[in-house]
# Entry
Amino acid sequence: MKLILGSHAAVMRPARRSRRRRAAAIAATVLAALLAAGCSSSSSSSSSSSSTSTTSSSPSSAASSQKVTLTFWSWVPNLDKVVAIWNQSHPDIQVQVQVQAGGDAELTKLLTAAKAGNPPDLAQVEYQVLPTLVSNNYLANIAQYASSLKSDFPAGNWNQVTLGTSSLYGIPQDAAPMALFYRADLFKKYGLTVPATWAQFAADAAKLHSEAPGVFLGTFSSVDPGEFAGLTQQAGAQWWSASGSAWTVSIDSAASRKVASFWQSLVASGGVDNQPQWTAGWNKGMNNGKYIAWVSDVWAPSDMPTVSPANNGKWLMTELPQWTAGSNVVGNWGGSSTAVMAASKHQQAAAEFAAWLNTDPQATGALVSDSGIYPADITAEGALSAPPTYFSNQPAFWSLAKQYAAGASQVTWGPDVNVAYSEFTTAFGGAVTSKGSFLSPLAQVQSAVLSDMKKSGFTVQAG
Amino acid sequence: MKQTRRATAPRLAPYAFVAPAVVFFAALLLVPIGYTLYLSFEKSQVSGLGLGAGARRQVFAGLSNYSAALADPAFAASLLRVLVYSLILVPVMLGLALLFALLLDARRVGFQRFARLSIFLPYAVPTVIASLLWGFLYLPTVSPFPAILARLGLAMPNLFASRTALFSVANIGVWGGTGFNMIVMYTALRAVPAELYEAARIDGASQIQIALRIKIPMIAPALVLTGVFSIIATLQVFNEPQTLAPLTNTISPDWMPLMKVYDLAFNDNNSYEAAALSLVIAAAMFVLSFGLLRASNKRVFQGR
# Structure
């Protein structure tokens, strides 16, 4: 099993989204997970031993007149509070959240459980792995239940959950434009300007390194392929594209190489650290001023209280530095949808819940306030008036997020992102440690993906 | 009547006694191995973009999974790594275990029971927990050691560098495994007849001579047993590096052979190639342990 090691703070559910979020939590979480595993196996059997309720169900769940219990895998913090609202008003469709360690850990479990034929009814699925799950036929097409929601979401997010087809494989939950976070107090102390371009970011890194070696503008994390992928999107990379029945893989493209070389030189010169994120050491560095900037995403509010508990209000969000001054382009790091599994016996009920969770004003409001999520639903404006507690010094937090989301690049994800991400960790791990070339690991990821796709029978070419 | 009952009962009883073991052996070992064998000759085949329902089928793959698994340079690298790991771990662990066993056997003093228990105790800590504990000690930012070493004017070495990581992982194995092996050896030592020691002492042998010439040869079977088991266990190392992997760039998802299998099966979602690779590893382990036991049987057990 994959294990979790990380923060020294309270027992929080780790992090959302990144591929390697398994790396964030404490030994106590491991214990909790073990206990939870024990509990969930028994509770699922007891709860499913159906109480044959004779009452006709709530009007919305016309299909079933019996009480159903849906299991839902997710790693969103405090999601149980949001789901409690649904459970209260829907006595016949009870949803049971089974908390997962993170996006990466959940995908591994989900692929295995689906193959074994006993996945949950619902799962939180990051956009980039939807094609992987669809390609394995593990997700239900819920177009007949929820297609009408199209107008609630930005076209980009809707395209991610339909894969550009007439099918619908999930309801978008959050948009995930990347952003830069920085310690306002320490930027002042070291005399750094908030970088608007990557050139300024590099200059800041050099200045910081000469003034305070051992303090970094963040770290290049080999366990976060999703972060790197987002950075390359900003530079114009499109790792996968499809035309006709053929795939093109362009992971090792000029745009990706530009980004890789940029970070390689920052790591080599010492302005940016080379340690993985989501470890106890990283948390400590984020907390004690070793790391004074973090290239992250608008979902950071859900992580910050765990990652940097001592600095409430000192971190601020700003736009991701640009390659061209004055432009407004950012990549995406993660972002996820609520999907219904193909093996679920209650697909309609599950689709109803997924639609409610991500479009009902009460639900999206709770997602924002309890879980720190930036909802993809464009009608969920009302919930976004107050900034997240941790960013109370930045009243415009959500309107900034909205502004970044408008500049987020459109992405097509391939059918084996899991292979690319796993290879990324292997290949960049070595390069980052030795502070060597980042170009050869990039080529290695490309060739691993090509050979995996060829092996599976895809028609594929290098772009 | 009585006679027939007596005649049939003994004939049925053995089967009844054996049945549970056979059932469990078949259900938990033979059937999974059979299924693994079946999977290893299959693969998933995609048509078109692979996105619609039914775009992926499971088809016969021949030996392609085996050739792909064996040709992967990462597998060869992990194999080499695990051999080096075993070379570091097994001698150190068994050497320490033997040393402790001899010390405990030689000194029949008051704190002996306490010493025995405290050396054994780490074995009772699950390897995952042990790896988490050691992981925190290895990470310079959260470990107490850098501060302690700094007082002494020393710097803490990077315990996750590409050259040191293997030792760091082996250290966890030594810490966890020494106690168990010590108990096995110590128990064997207690079974050595006391007359031998008396005779040696009358002949004027020192404690060290008794240890080298009597005790160690007398417990050779236990040494061989612990040796074989340790080698098998170290070649299957998984928990420690897998738990430490998120802490460092050095330990990649395919760092050890079994991690490679895990990576293939669960990260890459390719249970077919993972099945082939695990069978290759299982076969190698079987040949190795069988060979080791045979070789040692001839020398140690039948030589007497």
